[in-house]
Amino acid sequence: MFASAITIFAFLLLILAIAVVVMSFKIVPQQRAGIVERLGKYRTTLDSGPHLILPFLDRLRYMIDQREQVLSFPPQDVITEDNLTVSIDTVIYYTVNNPVSATYEIVNYIEAIHQLTMTTLRNIIGGMTLEHALTGRDQVNRTLGAELDAATSRWGIKVNRVELKSIDPPPTIIDAMEKQMRAERDRRAVILTAEGERQAAILTAEGQKQAQILTAEGQKQAAILEAEGERQSAILKAQGEGRAIETVFQAIHDGNPDQKLLNYQYLQTLPKIANGENASTWIIPAELTASLGQLGGIIGKVPVDGGGSRRRVDLDEQISASDLAQSTDTSEAVEEALEAARAAETKAPPTAE
Questions:
Q1: Predicted structure pTM score
Q2: CATH, domain 69-169, list 3.30.479.30, 3.40.50.620, 3.30.300.350, 1.10.730.10
Q3: pLDDT digit string (tens) for 153-205?
């Protein structure tokens, strides 16, 4: 009987020892902080890892999560400066830096952040127009984040970032804004179309101007080249005719013709004169023989060398004074012969054949 009582007492002592060990050994997860109270008063803060506390005296009261947390609030109605009601959704990113302050300085820091966000947001949006609020989200985020961070710092909470998820104006305002934006887009489209047409007209006129300039320049160059070609052609033609005359003159000079040959050539030329386009009637002088005789007599005065020319005339040689005088005498003799033929023709009565 006594032995069984001892056994039971030992078993109870063992259970008590196990309970004391379990109550004394505490494990705090990573990025957590444990708040330990002794007899209802704050004693210490446990970091992540295993810890031992006094059972029945110490108590792990709170386990604070120190990771960055996201807090999203439902849409809140806010009135702008121009008396328009908008619905705004906010998202807050925060971190608990001081677990003791977050535990003992505020009862519910999440609800406190919610209420503080609502009042601060109304103050900020109340001083802005709707258009400014819609286009100034970054400014609202920075201002709201700074205000919340300053207010929650004494609670051991760090507000890292604040974002406005949406700003929803009333349906009537949305419809008016859509009409305004549509009118603005139409205006910009008209301006861009007019600007494009203007640029197109300018470019077209510039292209036509350049084309006319190039056409005129081409015509100018063509006219210059054509005139140059005509000049070169005239020069070459004149040179060819000069060479032909010089060649004929040289051949006559080399051939040394007599009176009979000249008369024969004159008779051969008369049919060619008669075959002209305007030669429907040909008048032959009665004293043609006398005229030919006088012509031959005068041509006979042309100084010739009966034995043929002893020297060939150089066409490029400089003409001396004696040669020039001799050429002048020859030209005068030819002119006199022609004048004599014309005189004989006018004195004699014409006969038609």
A1: 0.48
A2: 3.30.479.30
A3: 889 999 999 988 888 888 887 788 788 888 988 999 999 999 999 999 999 99
